[in-house]
Amino acid sequence: MPAPHRPVTSVGDRAADDLRFIRDAMARSATFTAVPGFGGTFMGVVGLAAAFIAWRQPSPDRWLGVWLAAAVVAAAGGAIAIVLKAGRAGLRLDGPTARNFAIGLIAPLAAGAAITYALWLAGTYSAMPAVWLLLYGTGVLIGGVFSVPVVRLTGALFMLLGFAAVLLPTEYGNVCLGAGFGVLQTIGGIWIARKHGG
C-alpha cells in the first residue's frame, strides 16, 4: 500500500512562517494593550462633570479643588480599569512594556503636580489649564509609544488643546479642560472599548 501523500514544504517557507510567528509574538509583547476603554470613558465623564461644576465655583481655590478632586477620582477609576482589563486578558502588569508605559505616563503627571503647586503658591491659576493639558498629553503620547496608535493620537490632541489654552483668553481655560478631559477622553475611551477589547 503506498504511503499517504504529504505536501512538500521547503525549508525557506517554513523559516518564513517561523519568522512571521516570532515577529507577531514580539509585537504583541511590546504593546501595552491593557489601556482601558471603559475606564477612559469613565474618566471622560468625570472630566465633563468637573468642567461644569468648576465653571460654577465662586473662587479660584474652589475651582482648583474641583479639578483636583476630579483628578483623584479619574486616576483611581483608570487604575482599577487597567487592573481589571489586564486580568480579563491575562496580561502582566509587571513586565517591561507595562513598566515603560507607566513611566512614560507618570513622569509628566508628577511634574504637573509640582508645577501646579508652584502656580498655586504664586496665585497663577490661569496657567494651570495649559500646564495640565500639555503635560497629560505628553504623558499619554509617551506612554502611547508602548500601546495602540489611538493612545498616541489622543496624547497629541491633548497637547494641541494645551497650546490652544496658552493662546486663548484665560476665560477659555476651563472650556479647554472640559474639551480635553471630558470630550476627548470620552471619545478615546469609547474608541478603545470598541476596537481594543473593552
List its salient traits:
single chain; 198 residues; mainly alpha; 78% helix
Spell out the blueprint of helices and strands.
Elements: H1 11-29, H2 37-55, H3 60-89, H4 96-122, H5 128-144, H6 149-167, H7 173-195
Helix pairs in contact: 2-3, 2-7, 4-5, 5-6, 5-7, 6-7
Overview of the molecule:
This protein is mainly alpha-helical and 198 residues long. The protein has one domain (31-195). Helix content is 78%, strand content 0%. It contains seven helices and no strands. Helix 2 (37-55) runs antiparallel to helix 3 (60-89), helix 4 (96-122) packs antiparallel against helix 5 and helix 6 (149-167) runs antiparallel to helix 7. The protein is elongated, with a radius of gyration of 22 Å. The model is unreliable at 24-30 (pLDDT under 50).
Order of helices and strands: HHHHHHH
Overall pLDDT, averaged?
Answer: 85
What percent of residues are in strands? under 5%
Number of domain units: 1
Largest sheet: none
Task: Provide the low-confidence segments as ranges.
Answer: 24-30
Shape: elongated
The number of helical elements comes to: 7
**Helical/strand content category:** mainly alpha
Helicity range: over 70%
Distance between the termini: 55 Å
- Say how many strands there are: 0
Radius of gyration of CA atoms, rounded to a whole number: 22 Å
Brief summary of the model shown:
The protein is mostly helical and 198 residues long.
